[in-house]
Structures are given as C-alpha cells and as structure tokens.
Design goal:
Strand content: 35-45%
Shape: flat
Distance between the termini: 15 Å
Structural class: mainly beta
Order of helices and strands: EEEEEEEE
C-alpha cells in the first residue's frame, strides 16, 4: 500500500510520460489488492491513473489534474500514444507490478 501523508505535497509530476500511475495487470497476471491514496497526479500525456486487468484496486483521496496533455481533439490520434500502454518506465511515471 502506498499512502503518503499529505497529497498537496506528495506529487507525481508525469510530464512527458504516458501515465502518472499505471497499475499493470496485463504484464503482471494476478495483480490485485493495490491501494493508491493521497497523491496529486499531474501533467501526464494521457491518463493520470490507468488500471488494466487488475482486481481489488482501491483508488481514493487523490487529486488528478492537468492530464491528457497530449490530447488533441481536432486530430485523429494522439501524438506519441503507444499502440498499447506498455509497462516500460519510459512511458509511465510510476508502475505497480506483482510481487512474488
């Protein structure tokens, strides 16, 4: 569990990254029981928080602002958008993986 004490000064600035937090159950089958609370997540190119194929995920008391920075509603696609959101730290700001 990640639980910072104060979301106003516990900031994930994902500028230049695809996502602020990516809970990646695609590349980590069985990922579950993830709690994300108390963050400010900002400036991601796409989603501030993205969850794929994970179970028992709790996301609460976060401030998610100024994301979708690469979104251009007049274009047919988002520049730099990966075909699928990959699990590389080159794309995401923070990533949760299954611990065995």
């Amino acid at each position: 569990m990640v639980d910072p004490a104060n979301r106003s000064n516990t900031i994930i600035d994902a500028k230049g990254k695809g996502n602020g937090i990516y809970i990646d159950g695609l590349d980590n089958p069985g990922l579950r029981e993830v709690v994300v609370t108390g963050f400010t997540i900002q400036n991601a190119n796409f989603e501030g928080i993205l969850v794929t194929n994970a179970s028992s995920v709790s996301i609460s008391d976060n401030r998610v602002v100024n994301n979708d920075m690469a979104l251009n509603p007049t274009a047919a696609k988002c520049p730099g958008q990966p075909q699928l959101h990959c699990a590389s730290t080159r794309v995401t700001g923070c990533e949760f993986r299954l611990s065995v």
